[in-house]
Amino acid sequence: MRKLLAVFALMLCTVFLQAQTSYQVIPLPDSTKFATLARMSAWTSQSFMVRLGADTTNGTRSTGTVIGGLETNLLGGQNYEFEFNVPFQANTSTSTGLALYVTVAGAGVISYDCLIPAAADGVSAMYSGWGTASADTVMAQTVQATSAVYMAKVFGYVFNATAGPLRLWFKGFNIAGTITVKQFAWGRIRQF
Asked: What is the DSSP track for 61-97?
């Protein structure tokens, strides 16, 4: 009975969230449903979700590749917060880490943080960096293994002075190998 009531409460929350948001609420495993719903309630009716539908690969250190499914157009003179989750894999070399950066047209203010897996589990496992300008690159130099799929996270704020696209870009840190951003990388953008 308790589980039935919990499922019913979840269904009501889902209907409420779908009515309050313009993105699809994705079903989650039982163990994470309630904690995730509490976090998602902060993303109100001005939010939307973007998702990458196919793998994207980059083999250069000098030229970034836009993660096409995660780009969106922003209105000028508005405040936005954004969050991107980026599953990635170094294809051929553990010395090829991931580099990420965000670009916007005419940012009055932009600030974002990146968390990128770079080593074995432990104190130095995550590389943490930040961007304070459009195209300010954050780079992790290595990964632990080429066979693993890692999850990087980018989150931040932008006041967009002029209308234009918000884009997340990636490239490999080292030209020794390629980096692939895996399908279903996703993000949320909220205007406030």
From this structure: SSS-EE-GGG-EEE-TTEEEEEEEEEEEEESS-TT--
* Distance, CA of 35 to CA of 55 (rounded, Å): 29
pLDDT at 13: 44
| 133-144 pLDDT, tens digit each | 999 999 998 889
Computed on alpha carbons and rounded to an integer, the radius of gyration of the chain in Å comes to 18
- At 184, list the tokens: 């279903």
Count of CB atoms within 10 A of residue 73's CB?
A: 10
Q: Are the C-beta atoms of residues 114 and 152 closer than 8 Å to each other? A: yes
Separation of alpha carbons 73 and 106, rounded Å = 12
- pTM for the full predicted model: 0.74
CA atoms within 13 A on the CB side of 113: 5
- List the helix and strand counts (H, then E) for the chain: 2, 13
Q: Domain extents for the chain? A: 1-45, 46-191
CATH architecture of 46-191: Sandwich (2.60)
pLDDT number for residue 172: 86
pLDDT score of 29: 40
